[in-house]
Design brief:
Organism: Paenibacillus germinis
Oligomer: single chain
Mean pLDDT: 86
Radius of gyration: 23 Å
Protein name: ABC transporter permease subunit
Order of helices and strands: HHHHHHHHHHHHHH
Largest sheet: none
Number of strands: 0
Subcellular location: Cell membrane
Helix content: over 70%
Low-confidence stretches: 269-274
Keywords: Cell membrane, Membrane, Transmembrane, Transmembrane helix, Transport
Structural class: mainly alpha
Main location: membrane
Length: about 270
């Protein structure tokens, strides 16, 4: 009886905490349908007195349509997500299943690069991109985005959990590394791949610093840079910004909804094995 009461208290506590975490999200959606005079009205009116779609319409049909920023972000985030997921899996397989001298030392050295702050690399990358002619293009964001140290680490940890006997039996049957990788390891790694895809998509969709440094032309801007359109000379269009932000979270929600079933399959599969 005491155990059930403790679980109930934990559930109630987590529910209250979850409600506090979702309040800014609800305020954002509510504000996108308010008039400018209602934005900072106190006490907060969670349900607008007069619901208006003006700001949502303005985001997509205004002088500078948000659609181009939306498509730019989708292009960059999707290419980086697919490329980084595949390349990370390929590198992780090499670090976990192919024996070569100094493998663990090389992996530790590679992993130590995570300690280098990304801001330190802005000047070297600016010089490099300018030399090879990709500065002020989407390739300045896509090419570095295809490689992620965290992704290699995540996928290697998953591959290391796969019993060695599985790949050894495949070798006995005459399969090579590429066949084992594509037909055996990748299907087993769906939960890890889905997790990495969701994280990587979120990273690049919300990437503000790299877009700010390496993109100059307004028609190349991504969603985070497009938010600057709502910062006017003497004031800030909070309603428009909240409407644009509400639209901006839709792709991340879709990616999560599509990938969550694989994550749940991985969790339940691990529980059954345990």
């Amino acid at each position: 009886m005491e155990i059930k009461s403790t679980k109930l208290l934990y559930t109630i506590a987590m529910l209250i905490l979850g409600l506090f975490m979702i309040l800014p999200f609800l305020w954002m959606i509510s504000t996108s349908f308010k008039t400018p005079n209602e934005v900072f009205q106190y006490p907060i009116q969670w349900i607008p007195q007069k619901v208006t779609f003006e700001h949502h319409i303005k985001v997509w049909t205004g002088k500078e349509s948000f659609l181009i920023y939306y498509m730019n972000s989708l292009k960059i985030a999707l290419i980086c997500m697919v490329g980084a997921t595949f390349l990370s899996s390929l590198a992780a397989y090499g670090f976990s299943r192919i024996e070569f001298k100094g493998r663990n030392l090389l992996f530790m050295f590679y992993l130590s690069m995570m300690m280098v702050p990304p801001q330190v690399l802005f000047v070297p990358k600016f010089i490099l991109f300018d030399k090879i002619g990709i500065y002020n293009t989407h390739w300045a964001l896509i090419l570095p985005g295809l490689f992620t140290i965290f992704g290699v680490f995540l996928m290697r940890q998953f591959f290391m959990s796969v019993p060695q006997e599985i790949t050894e039996s495949a070798f006995v049957d005459g399969a090579g590394h590429f066949r084992i990788f594509f037909q055996l390891m990748l299907p087993l790694a769906k939960p890890a791949l889905a997790t990495l895809a969701i994280i990587d998509f979120s990273w690049h969709w919300n990437d503000y610093e790299n877009a700010l440094v390496f993109l100059l032309d307004r028609d190349l801007y991504t969603v985070p840079l497009g938010m600057q359109n709502f910062i006017l000379e003497f004031n800030i269009d909070y309603n428009g910004m909240m409407a644009a932000t509400s639209a901006g979270i839709v792709p991340m929600l879709l990616v999560f909804l599509i990938g969550q079933k694989y994550i749940i399959q991985g969790i339940t599969g691990s529980a059954v094995k345990g």
